[in-house]
Model the fold of this input.
Amino acid sequence: MYRFLSWLLLPIIGLQVSGTLADPLLDPIPEPIEIGELGIHLTEISDGMVAPLHATAAPGDAGRIFVVDQVGVAYAIDLASGGKTVFLDVSDRVLVNLGAYDERGFLGMAFHPDYQTNGLFYTYTSEATDGPADFPWTGFGFGLHQSVIAEWRVDNPTDPEELAIVGSRREVVRIDQPTSFHNGGALTFDLQGFLLIALGNGGPLATGQDNTSVLGSILRIVPNPDYAPAGDHPLSANGQYRIPETNPFVTDSDALDEIFAHGFRNPYRISVDRGNGDIYAGDVGNNDIEEVDFVTAGGNYGFPIKEGSFCFVGSGGQPDGSPGVTDPSECVAESVGMIDPLAEYDHDEGVAVIGGYVYRGPANNDLDGRYLFADFNGRLFYLDGSTIREFEVLGETSVGGALLGMGEDASGNLYLVANDTGRTSGTSGRLLRIDPLEPAEIDVIVDIKPGGDPNSINPGSNGVIPVAILSTNTADGDTQDFDATQVDASTLRFGPGEAPIAHGNAHVQDVDADADHDLVVHFRTQETSIMCGDTELSLIGETFDGQGFVGSDSIRTTGCEQNACH
Done:
């Protein structure tokens, strides 16, 4: 069942899906991704890394998160202090081009579900070719190397100070890689206790449609034969792992038993919803489409017959001769049984999808159950059904560079890992926690003035919109100061109504000459819709450190013409 795969060159194949090449779609998804109603702010937890790609938790260890740095180091990071300790150093084994953009390196890590008792965890590393592979490749190649899944052990996993035992390494599987890119790299356990391994297609190749190759697939195995979930799981050919008896191709003599799903280009990050076991993959596209896939057993996700929901065309797909996409109607016969993405976007919006997680963190009704993900360019998204929305990121902290991966801690909080350049150099690598916005916590004193024109509050008038003056002191008996200089002006909203109104400008001044700061906020007339007469208005916002506030005031607008009121 283990065959040598000699060639499947994508540019040579061309993958023209009809006798006459259809016109390429230069803008496959013209509708832009809009900013949604959900806002978040980011909290920096730790820094000083090179190129962190992934963050994961060890079962039973709620106080730490483990970050994989591409250059070959896994850090244990204290979530309270941000202090980091080298948990494992495999830099002497890892093949990566330092100081450059590279898709090889230390790419993934996952802890065994029974880590608290067996102390086992697993790594995915790119390594120089060192002996025969369990899944060999012959023929075409440049940047030849091997992807290696290895098992490691911690002697006392209940001790948070314990580090990996370097001499405990056991090789699970070794895979030939024909090129230095499209390596995938994600490892994660599903809720049944099986290890999922994400593998890219190995370069410009059609391997995802050939189930005699592991490339372009997500594999599912029992990584340690002695710690297998219940069932009759046969031993692998190399004797180092078991194959789940429920894998979808175990009875197919023309497919590898290890394959769980296939037809991927580069499923760089995958995750399992801790709430229900659903599996998601962010599959990095070619020239046009980035996609989020809902992964099911035996699923074929189309590449390179399809890129996203569109027909993929190899050489000549674009006017400049590069690959492109055409309308889905052009490959109906060829794509029978293939699964379209859960969500997709084109390269007007981003460059490479970063697969994320379903939020199952501390109680938050807005984020709970939503799939959060990102793009390499730093944009943060969530799914609203199958519609992609962009988060509004509030506060002083931003991604501020290349977004390299995401992560989840033991409590379900989600994280971003990023650096300034997207390259394996420097020390700008950092870990950021995604924090949902809290409801308004501070009641503040707001004085809202209608302005000089009697009709100024009314959008039908030509007057100036009212000015809101935010007092220094809080409204709860003036027991604490509220520093107006700490207000994040980008968060300010003017209500009431289901569609809050953005402000035009805001500045700090001492309005009442009491030597304290006040915030003066002007609003744009064309965006408001307020009844004439007595009106209760609110100013809503957030401080740079994430504290929400709200203040209300009543005003009376007189002299409105009936046909001008709204």
